[in-house]
Amino acid sequence: MMDNLNFDSNFLAHNTESCLSKLNKEENWNRLPLINSCSHQNLKDGQLVRFRGMIQDMYNPVLYFSSYAVRNTKTNETLIRCGKYKDSLEYSEEEEFLFESEDNINKERRSVYCVSIPALNDWAKLPLHTSNESLVNHENAGAKRNMEIDEEESSDKSESNITKRLCSSQESASNKQVANGMEYDLNLPIPNLMDKACIINLYDEDGSNLKLNDVVEVAGFLSFDSSTTCTINGDFCTDDEIKFPPSSIVPRLHAVLIKDAMSFNPPSNLLSTDDVWQNAAYLQKELKLVLTQVLFGDILAADYLILHLLSTVYKRQDMMALGKCSLNLSNIPSPSLLPGYTKKLYSLLSELLHKSHFLPMSLTNMNSVDLIPKKNYETNKLISGQLQLSNKTHLVLDETCMEAGKLDEKGVRNIQALGNLITFQKLDYNFQFYPVEIDTNIPVLILSEGKSMLNSDCHVVLQPDKMCLLTINETFEAAKHFMKDPLLSRLRFYLSSIPFKDHEIPSDLQKVIHEDFVKLRQNDNKFSGDDLHILLVLARLHSLSKGQQLLTHESWQTVQDMEEQRKYVITYHFLCACPNLMAYHQRWLGARRFEPEHLHGVG
Predict the structure, then answer these.
(1) What is the CATH number assigned to the segment(s) 273-598?
(2) pTM of the predicted protein model
(3) Buried b (16+ CB within 10 A) or exposed e, 264-287
């Protein structure tokens, strides 16, 4: 038998433990209507709902009355009301608020501005459905509540049928703008007509550990009343609250329970973490098969792309983001030779990745697009930029559309921001008077004709097979037909769950790694600690990709071979572009030949 979730904010405030116990059950949680996929017309003020999104902005804490006293002017009776989970103080025409009452208790709450998760791919949005049963049940909530709420709470509810909402004049002016056809900017990092925004009020210690760009799923009471625009703080609105958008456009949600949604995966009866982990080697093989074909038959490039897709920052130490593995795939055919290739490759990747964003690096785009969030002190808003993304959002940069020209000041700042993101996994948000450093975890893939103007952890030169070049459009179609459920769902779960597995290096292998580092230094005096770090990252990712949580000698040797082969291809490609150097090296090396058919993937 399902639990009854039709309680209001007053009932929850007095029965917190039992209500939260019900909400913590997954079947009850999923029954709550999800604002992201509901029409506002289907939602009601005071309804218990959910919102899933990213924290785009955070406001200063404000005081509110957790409880307050009102007096009936006719009977002289004094009542104590609960102000928690409410936008305003509620009292009827026959009641007055007692400003000096000792029963008035102030507490703090803070508001955060949440938007639908930026760059969330369409397939990941499909599960965001609404329980029709929850909506229907809400219609009869009044009758059911009478059986659950005690007499005092029912009395409070009836006496507050007519409410006075302070600061309503500001809302009226704002609503007039909407009524006159004015559109309110939802401040979305990546504009999308279907995305929504919500202001979430956090109480007590809820959300004390939340930070900018965190992805959360929140259950709470909806404030969707057109007569309110701001949170009541006594009898005044703060400046921040007056500048809030109207609740008819951006509803308020008074948070009851908050869950971390970072590890969200669409539910499926076919999937489990154990199943994916036990079949990791098989799934890696299937993914490699697909990626090899769409990368013109280049096995080595497919190996590196898989490791890149699995990469994530798992620790920060000494100014380093450990675990990142940015990848530059160069020698991509130019748009004039193969139109639309980069977009088709991205489209295929977006079918596998939970969150991803494609950014063409044309001169016009770089000089015009806003990548970095900027603080506007007049409106007290953090104006979003396209790089304000949640963790594990894959960013694909397309350099093939670059043309000759000059970057203006904004373009230079954008390129610098991309460079810092790739190198340090940090972004400096523009707070005008000073920068605010924000840690990121955004894997970056760069597609370019020549070596990218941006640094990357790994640069792989594509070695296209001529037959694959001629049939690439058919190859993409075949890849789509190949990646059908249940394989597609398993590959998605594989890419989203494997990166967060623990990984260790056995003590005996640590000694081997140290000895190999000494040998590598002896053979190449330019081999540095950073190069060793890249090897360790690749080894970790290679082990995990195969379903191994302990690094093995085989994986360690494999990534060394991959790196040697990657550098060999770069040298070969460079020499092909310089015939005189090629001839010189061929004479110097004697019988050794630089031929692409000698290059094979080793992953």
Answers:
(1) 3.40.50.300
(2) 0.85
(3) bbbeeeebeeeebbeebeebbebb
